[in-house]
Amino acid sequence: MRAQAGKWTFDPKTIELNRGDHVILKIYNEDEYDHGIAIEALALNKRLPAKTETVIEFDAEKEGRMPFYCSIPCGEGHFYMTGVFIVQ
User: Fold this and answer.
1) What torsion do the CA atoms of 80, 14, 37, 46 make, to the nearest 10 degrees?
2) pLDDT per position as a tens digit, 10-50
3) Using one digit for the tens of pLDDT, what is the confidence trace for 58-74?
4) 23, 58 contact by CB (below 8 A)
5) Contact, 4 vs 35, CB < 8 A?
6) Which residue in 71, 67, 66 sits closest to 45, CA to CA?
7) Dihedral sign, CA of 7, 41, 25, 53?
8) pTM metric for this prediction
9) Please, which contacts does 7-12 make with residues 24 or more away whose CB atoms are closer than 8 Å?
10) Rounded alpha-carbon distances, angstroms, from residue 55 to 6, 28, 52
11) Do 29 and 63 form a contact (C-beta atoms < 8 A)?
12) Which residues of 26-57 are buried (b: 16+ CB within 10 A; e: fewer)?
């Protein structure tokens, strides 16, 4: 996964998982400034330092949608920096 430079978006924005999957999420922040990722369903809030890869691990235990969003104000497009994990 990437936080795309100058675009205020995560790529991909939607990730499909199977219930029970152990997820190793590698997020590379392409921007010159920090972002964050919050996944409220997992009580997770992690800083994504500039030009750095951050690794987050979790188990997809419940079916449904787990929205995520940038948790650090990062500019005019901050509120568009969202996505969802879909656990089937």
Assistant:
1) 180
2) 999 999 999 999 999 999 999 999 999 999 999 999 999 99
3) 999 999 999 999 999 88
4) yes
5) no
6) 71
7) positive
8) 0.90
9) 7/77, 8/70, 8/74, 8/75, 8/76, 8/77, 8/78, 8/80, 8/81, 9/77, 9/80, 9/81, 10/37, 10/68, 10/70, 10/81, 10/82, 10/83, 12/83
10) 22, 9, 10
11) no
12) ebebebeebbbbbbebbeeebebeeeeebebe
- Look up residue 1 and give its two tokens: 């996964």
Tokens encoding 67: 């929205």
Q: Is 43 helix (H, G, I), strand (E, B) or coil?
A: coil
Which domains are present in the chain?
Answer: 2-87 (2.60.40.420)
How distant, in Å, are the alpha carbons of 37, 78, 88 from that of 53?
13, 20, 27
